[in-house]
Amino acid sequence: MRHLPIVIAAVLASALPALAQTPASKPTAKPTVAPNSAIAPILAPGRTLLSTKEVMRHIVNPAAETFWAHSGVVDDEKGANDRTPTDEANWKLSMDSAAQLVEAGNLLQMEGRARDPNGPWMKYALQLTNAGVRGMAAALAKDHDKTFDAGSAMYDSCYACHGKYIVRPKDSLYRHDIDKDLEAAGKTPK
Ligand code: HEC
User: Fold this and answer.
1) In this predicted model, what pLDDT tens digit does every residue of 28-48 receive, in sequence order?
2) 66 CB under 6 A from ligand 1?
3) Is residue 112 part of a domain?
4) What's the gap in Å between 23 CA and the centre of ligand 1?
5) Distances (CA, A) of 140 to 94, 95, 105
6) Phi, psi angle pair for 81, to nearest 5°
7) Nearest of 180, 80, 86 to residue 142 by alpha carbon
8) What is the pLDDT of residues 72-112, one digit of tens each?
9) 126 lines ligand 1 (CB under 6 A)
């Protein structure tokens, strides 16, 4: 069992009481970045506290899962289930999770975390940011199709980066849907 580094535990402890008192915020705010704005990749200096794996596990994956759970149509026992939000509370979840992915793309471009600062890593990180920006715009517009498209764009960034950078031992028990799709396409990195 790994423990959180002390510094993070301290930050969390000081932030939690404040979080508990925060009143529910307004559901939507206009994103500061417009979709399709030409953002250049940047190797950002700074201090990384979490590993890439932790950023994936605790920030990128939960945010993406939340966004996906509020988009698209899935077949379940009751038939086609359209998960696109129909109320403010759920649109807020889409907006929040998309915003988290926008900045997560930046976290992946930080010195010490960017695995391959001169390679496609930066492009894929930016792809995640741009998909998040599209997600925010879709949530702001409360638009069904744009939400679905943003979710696909998010998925494409995971798929592209994992296909290039994650080498899994053959006997790995860990399987994400992304891995299964990569495997089916014969694109697992060697
Ligand atoms: C710029 C590259 C990049 C992008 C974009 C990216 N990932 Fe990752 N991801 C990685 C790398 C590298 C690892 C392996 C980290 C390690 O094991 O050290 C990883 C690992 C993971 C893991 C496994 C974490 C664990 O506990 O072992 C999950 C889950 C994950 N990513 C989900 C996602 C999802 C979902 C997306 C898209 C919304 C995404 N990733 C986008 C590079 C990326």
Assistant:
1) 556 667 776 678 888 988 899
2) no
3) yes
4) 32
5) 9, 7, 20
6) -115, 110
7) 86
8) 999 988 899 999 999 999 999 999 999 999 999 999 999 99
9) no
Cβ neighbours around 182 below 10 Å, total:
20
User: What are the residue ranges of helices labelled H in the chain?
Assistant: 6-21, 52-55, 61-69, 88-108, 121-141, 144-165, 177-184
| Tokens standing for residue 175 | 């399987």
Q: Are strands 73-76 and 79-82 parallel, antiparallel or unpaired?
A: antiparallel
Question: Residue 124: CB within 6 Å of ligand 1?
Answer: yes
Nearest-atom number in ligand 1 for the CA of 108 is 1
How far is 98 from 5, CA to CA, in rounded Å? 27
Token pair recorded at residue 4: 């959180």
Q: Considering the domain boundaries, does residue 87 fall inside one? A: yes
> How many residues belong to the chain?
190
Residue numbers of the domain that contains 106: 6-184
Does some domain include residue 57? yes
Q: Show the tokens assigned to 44.
A: 């950002």
What total number of domains does the chain contain?
Answer: 1
147 falls within a domain: yes
